[in-house]
Amino acid sequence: MSNQFFWMSVLSLVAFAAVCVRRIPEGQVYSLRRVGGNTRFVGAGVHFVLPLIERVSHKMSLAGSRIEIPAMLGSGEKCEASLYFQVLDPQRADHVIESVDSLLRARASELLGSKAIPSDPLERRLWLKQSLNAEVRERGLLVTRIDLREVS
């Protein structure tokens, strides 16, 4: 009886240890929220996570992301923008990572519809990129590239 109890204990400890090990892929950062409200960030590799105390709240890709934005230029022309952005600081980006798509969409549409937008396509992309980066840089994000296409 005690031998069976011993093996059941060993098996349950091995199963618990297997559940606690979390492998995080290259180019990603996980935000782990603890029961008390504390947050810790873990990068690529194998990490020990306590399943009942910590949970993964956000998975952030450091490689970059892309969103499509349909917009109307200030001159009345329709255009589509492909906006590429990247997470630079996971601690600051953790607060806005769930709403970053809608934040960038709304602000880019607003800027594209502005009367102050330059008429030259190269200047327009540069101006839009600088304006967006001025707003999202303090949130730990960086707009890396913007492609604008006019739609007929």
Structure report:
With 152 residues, this protein is an alpha+beta fold. Helix content is 34%, strand content 37%. It contains 4 helices and 8 strands; from the N terminus they run H-E-E-E-E-E-E-E-H-H-H-E. It has helices at 2-20, 90-93, 100-112, 121-136, and strands at residues 21-24, 28-34, 39-42, 45-48, 54-61, 65-72, 78-87, 141-151.
CATH superfamily of the largest domain: Band 7 domain
Q: Can you tell me the CATH class of the largest domain?
A: Alpha Beta
**Corresponding CATH architecture of the largest domain:** 2-Layer Sandwich
Which blocks of ≥5 consecutive residues have pLDDT under 50?
A: none
Oligomer kind? single chain
Distance separating the two termini? 80 Å
Tell me, what's the shape? rod-shaped
Biggest sheet strand order reads 3-2-5
Helix content range of the residues, please? 25-40%
Kindly name the structural category: alpha+beta
Strand content: 35-45%
Largest sheet data: 3 strands, antiparallel
Short description:
The chain has 4 helices and 8 strands.
Keywords:
152 residues, alpha+beta, Tetrahydropterin Synthase, Chain A, three-stranded antiparallel β-sheet, 8 strands, 34% helix
How is the secondary structure organized here?
Elements: H1 2-20, E1 21-24, E2 28-34, E3 39-42, E4 45-48, E5 54-61, E6 65-72, E7 78-87, H2 90-93, H3 100-112, H4 121-136, E8 141-151
Antiparallel strand pairs: 1-4, 2-3, 2-5, 6-7, 7-8
